[in-house]
Amino acid sequence: MFGGQAPHRAGVWRGIEQQTDQWLLLVGLKPGLVVCDNGRNLVTALGLASLTHIPCLAHVLNFLVQKFLRNYPDMSELLHNVRAVCARFRRSHPAAAHLSALQRNFGIPAHRLICDVPTRWISTLHMLERLCEEF
What we know:
By secondary structure, the chain is mainly alpha-helical. Helices cover 64% and strands 6% of the residues. The chain contains six helices and two strands. The protein has helices at residues 7-23, 40-48, 57-71, 75-91, 93-106, 121-134; strands spanning 33-36, 52-55. A two-stranded parallel ribbon has the order 1-2. The termini are far apart.
């Protein structure tokens, strides 16, 4: 079936096939359209199996927002600085204790700062929102 194809692609398809057998065939459905990210190995495996790939809207949205964050003027520098501030307060017990004291003194909600996962735009939004809430 995979004549000449890389073994890992065949392995990906076998995994997909096992899942479809387990979930779809038991109730009389057949695979045809697959919604997933745009990972090259997965898209290739779907093509080899004659399945239609439909890009996942959440993954497409994440890709677009990440591209915006990388290319918007001064955004990279801003995010670098915000990440450094958040990481400092998350990793240093004395800094976190000082922040906690400041929060009490100024009546600010005592929440820890959030460090983002740069590949997940929503975590970057949560990091920025928390920082704005605390300062």
